[in-house]
Fold this sequence. Notes:
The protein is mainly α. Helices cover 68% and strands 0% of the residues. It has helices at 4-13, 21-27, 32-43, 47-64, 70-76, 82-93, 97-101. The longest helix is centred in the middle third of the chain and has 18 residues, at 47-64. It is elongated.
Amino acid sequence: MYYFEDIIKEIEENLTREIDISKLTKKATMSVYEFRRIFSFIAKISFGEYIRKRRLSLAALELCENKSNITEISIKYGYSSPSSFARAFKEFHGISPLEVINGN
């Protein structure tokens, strides 16, 4: 049996890549519907929202550490443009990526 901890570990290891939910469901021997329901029940958040929030959290860490610029980070975490990344970032963190880079 593929346990929840294993699923989280695999997700965390692949946050900078496309996460294929069908591969996770096969390993967990569940349907996609069942997997999404159980994930939401255990994590208290939907699968997609979990991925989005984890990516935005890691992006904030990278911005704080000045590892990359906004464009590189937005691409790394799956956003189609820096502006869509900045919008999601501000909605989640309450400040813009530029404010983080500037030390605010």
